[in-house]
Amino acid sequence: QVHLVESGGGLVQAGGSLRLSCAPSGVIVTLNSIAWYRQAPGKQREFVATISRSGTTDYKDSVKGRFTISRDNAKNMVYLQMSGLKPEDTAVYYCNVPVSGGLVHYSWGQGTQVTVSS
Length: 118
Fold this sequence. Notes:
Elements: E1 3-7, E2 10-13, E3 18-25, E4 34-39, E5 46-51, E6 57-59, E7 67-72, E8 77-82, E9 91-96, E10 112-117
Parallel strand pairs: 2-10
Antiparallel strand pairs: 1-3, 3-8, 4-5, 4-9, 5-6, 7-8, 9-10
């Protein structure tokens, strides 16, 4: 059974940094693309970044140059290093396995809250 666990969120001032962790038990990160998503209050969940099986990365335009997605194959973990945080980055962040059509493969985990103060 797949269980997605996100951690590392917190409260940070604008311009600060955080590193989020995704522990996808039941999913082998080297055999799947893994993506980060976020949902701000009152808004739909949106794509943030993804890393493919081959290690190719892609980002939402508004986070390019500020966020970096990476993985640790030995630990079977995926990370999202966030720098230059802005108040508009405030959201609950989730990881999942993306499939075609903007959908995801598994049920959502509880996510991790990121709050950026101005």
